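Morning F.,

Quick status update on the modeling queue. The single chain you submitted on Monday has been processed. Sequence for confirmation:
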Amino acid sequence: MTTGARRAAVWVGLAGLVISALFLLRFLATTGWDPTVFLSVGEESGATRAYVEDQLGEVDLRPAQGHDGKYFFVLANDPWILSPSENAAVFDRPLYRSQRMLYPVIAGAGGLLPPAAIVWSLLVVNVMAMGLGSWAVARIAQEMGGSPWIGLAFVLNLGFISEMAIDGAGIVAAALAFLALLMVMRSKVVFGYVLLALAALTREAMLIVAAGTAFWLWRDGRRREAGLSLLFPLGSVVLWAAYLRLRLGFETGADQVIEIGPPFLGLTRAFQNWLGDPLDLATGLAMVILIILFGLRALRSRHLVGWANLGFVVLGVLFTELVWSSWFDISRALAPAVTAYVVLFLVDRQLSRRGTVDDAAIDEPVGV
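C-alpha cells below.
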C-alpha cells in the first residue's frame, strides 16, 4: 500500500468525521443547542427519566419511552456497576442494558466525568467513531482493490445516522468490528481478536462478526486463528456477563432479550403495521430486499467483509415485531450489513470495469 493510498484513506476518515459533526451541529441548531435531546429520554420512561432529571435538571423529552441514549447516560455515570441500587436499578432490563459497556466506559472516562460533561462526551465519541469507521471501511475497500471513497458507506449509512440521533452504541461497535476485519485482512490477527472482543462488549450482536470471521479463517485453513478469533470476543462477553450477575444478582425481573423470536414471525407481524405508514413500508421492504441481495452476494464473493457480516441476514429473520415495525429501529439493527453490502457491490463493480475480476478472484478469500 503506497503512502498516497494511505493518505487517501485518511482523507475519507476525516470526511466521515466532518460529515457526522455537521449532522450533529445541524440537529443541535434546531433544538436550541440542547444536547439532552440526544439522550432520548421518554415522557413515560419513569425511573430512568427521574434519574436523568435528577442529574441534569430539565431535559428534552421524547414521546413514550424514548430511546437508548438515556441508558448509556446512566451507564456512563457508573460503567462498572459499582452502585447498582442507585444507577442500574432504573433500567427496564438491567442485564441487557449493562452488557453494552464499552461505549459508556469511554464516554464516561471510566466513571470519572460529571453528568454535565457526559451529555457531550457521548456525542463526541460517536463523531470520532464515525471517522474511525469511515477510515477502516476505506482501507478495507483498498485492500479489496476498490476506491477508498467507498468508506463513506459507513458515515452515510442511515442506520448509523439514526444511532447518532439517540446516543446509540452501534456506531462504536461497528467501527471496531470493521477495524478488526481490516486487521485480519492485513494478517494482524492478534489486533483483530482484541478489536472483535471490544466490538462485542459494545454491542453483543457483533459476536456475529466474530463468528463469520472465524468461519472465513477456518475455510482458509487457519484453524488456530479461527478458534481464537471467536474465543476472544465470546470469552470477553461471557466474563462481563458473569461480572454483571455478581453485581446485579440473578433475579433481574423482566425478560432480558425481547428482540429475538421465532423465524419470520416478527417480520410478518410488522408488515401489517407498515401498511399504515408509507415510510416504514418503504424502508421495511428495502431492508428485506437488501439483506437478501447481501446474503447472495456475500456467499458468491466469499470476501471476508461479506462472510463476517452474513449472520445479520439470519438475525434479521429472527428479529421480533419490536425491531421490524419501525424504519428507525430496523435500519439501526442491520446497519453493518448495509455498509458491507455497499462495499461488496461497489468494489466488485469497480474491479469489473477495470477487467480485473474473474471467477478465481471471486472464489478465493481476499486480503490473506
